[in-house]
């Protein structure tokens, strides 16, 4: 006759925890099944069409050279090596682009807020022009503008041992001699000393309130010690000078116009967006903060550096992250003007020669996915570090 | 959950691309939708090029029109899909287009491992080099150290690499996605050399700032047999596309063209011609076509020679010689099996 159940012995079916677990498991099973179904369907279709699959092609010789390679590469190397070269090119252009775009963006953002009428208007014109023109057009503009302005290799501009023509900027390339490691060691030692100095200066300031110009002194220490080590080793560096040949210039190092055009286009375009983000960040800091800092007797530059910027950064970082992500992904447009990055080398030449569409596109998606995720993770970490610590 | 949805969608997208193209029954599909979907280039003068009103012309375009005429007796029942060099095979594999007629070179890998079938050869081409005249280069063997511009996604890239390696010469590649920009880069002096098929060189040269300041070197460094491509596994469709071209070549050989075909059909006593034009036998039934399909193709599109002259030969700005593309009995290698 005891119909009322003990609440602690609730039916298995009515337990919220169990129920949600069951739903999750069912959902997961469905997702796995759908993926499996799609994948096996894909496999079956590829088989029935006689399309070969797999990543074996990565070990075959590529047979094509690449314009810009930072690691050694010849056409006798494999597709895997070509992929690596392209990957490095993508990383390099993204990293340099992010650094340059940030510098341009901060300068232009501050300039637009300047009390100088001309500076503010020039910054406005720059920002509004560049962020309203498609990036691809800007790349073509820089590429063909650069090409049109420069002379042919035979009529190169020459200054000292540098040559400038349509094929790029040629500079002497350094060749390290015996004893170069002494200079490197000197450089490392000077950096260690600098870091120690900065830490000491910070501690002393916290303890006594006395300020020491640690950063400038560090710079001096690095330059002097490295130079002394270099001199002690007897200047162990020689240069390979560029010289003109029948068609081109050989010897030395070259910075090709494709690289310059992509870098300039990416950094000025993204820089214009960053400028607006910086401006928004600074304007978001209440004017009262500046007034308070001044009434405490802080100079204008210190007010900006110690009061306004740290608070502005909290507003700036999240949208800045998406600009960095955009820049990394936009680097793929370099394929249009012969910059040999991933899309050009892997989805272009490799795909064409091997016909492995799904594999090559999959590789590229994986790379862009992980590149974006790592930028995102880094910026999230930085955001957390900069966010307001409430006490 | 979001990431899971993303995964499903992307896998689904890839799978959909591969699985929508039905392997068999292309002819039935084409008849059902009422037009032929043909993949062409994004603009190669003489081969497939759209004018400012969007009218397509060229030898590759005419190959599509001939197939459409054989099926519908109407050369206008074609829709063209302009494709980049690297999109073309995926578009065909996925069923987005019914046939690919886009100056595509017949190679072993493409035929064997891409799930595609090449039909017949519409143009025998070969890769060559164009250089700035002021460099004073007379032969491709003088190109050691040169900077070479070319378009990505074509056999051109590999042939070029092979050629320089074989002759133990070095070169600097500038690989650009679209042919227009590759030519523009060459024209601006970024490169010493522009390379593509010789017919393409002749076509592009007409578009340069000063065509006379550029010369095409005599060497031909590769075999580039160009022709329409279809999906593997639909033999009827492959036969149809192949024999439409063969019919046009046979017509030229028999002296039949778009102007005299009506007259010849009425008066001829030659059994070979009567078979081709479907006068007394039905050569169309097994292809799934009407008996007079070849007559329609010749009357409305023309024979192979007319097609050649109009698009790339003596009646066109390219003014290419017939050369290898002449009939076999006229000094060339254009040869079609007999209709019987």
CATH names the topology of the largest domain in chain A as MetI-like fold
Question: What structural class should be given to the helix and strand makeup of chain A?
Answer: alpha+beta
The CATH architecture of the largest domain in chain B can be given as 3-Layer(aba) Sandwich
* Anisotropy-based shape of chain B: globular
Q: What is the CATH C level class of the largest domain in chain B, in words?
A: Alpha Beta
Note poorly predicted spans of chain A. none
CATH topology of the largest domain in chain B: D-Maltodextrin-Binding Protein, domain 2
What percentage of residues of chain A falls in helices of 4 or more residues?
A: 55-70%
The count of β-strands of chain B is 14
Identify the quaternary structure here: heterodimer
Number of helices of chain A: 11
Distance between the termini of chain A: 59 Å
Number-wise, the strands of chain A total: 8
Order of strands, main sheet of chain A, comes to 1-2-3-8
DSSP summary: helix tally of chain B: 13
Q: Kindly give the count of domains of chain A.
A: 2
